[in-house]
Amino acid sequence: MLVTTTPSIEGHPIEAYLGLVSGEVILGANVFRDMFAGLRDFFGGRAASYERVLEDARQRAVQEMQAACDKRGGNAVVGVDLDYEVVGSKGSMLMVSVTGTAVRI
């Protein structure tokens, strides 16, 4: 399934617009990962454990959105917007949301 942030897909005319589709994932932060990320912040460098969590959350959210598109009979999603938010008390959770327009090309 094609997924793009652009409003159209070059070389693939849109036959039908099928509506807004989205995917949301909320993940809790692991206390040990937080502790090691804090050390990484202190000594410098990248927090690879957080990067893996962000990548996993993004992939899951996009997969949810693609499933919603498929359910509507679409085969592509255009105009995709991806957002990351920290939620929960003390910012203990990460929310990744992705939205777009389901289309049939």
Automatic annotation (TrEMBL):
Pfam family, one: YbjQ_1
Superkingdom as given in the UniProt entry: Bacteria
InterPro entries linked: UPF0145_dom_sf (IPR035439), UPF0145_YbjQ-like (IPR002765)
Protein family: Belongs to the UPF0145 family.
Protein name: UPF0145 protein K3181_06085
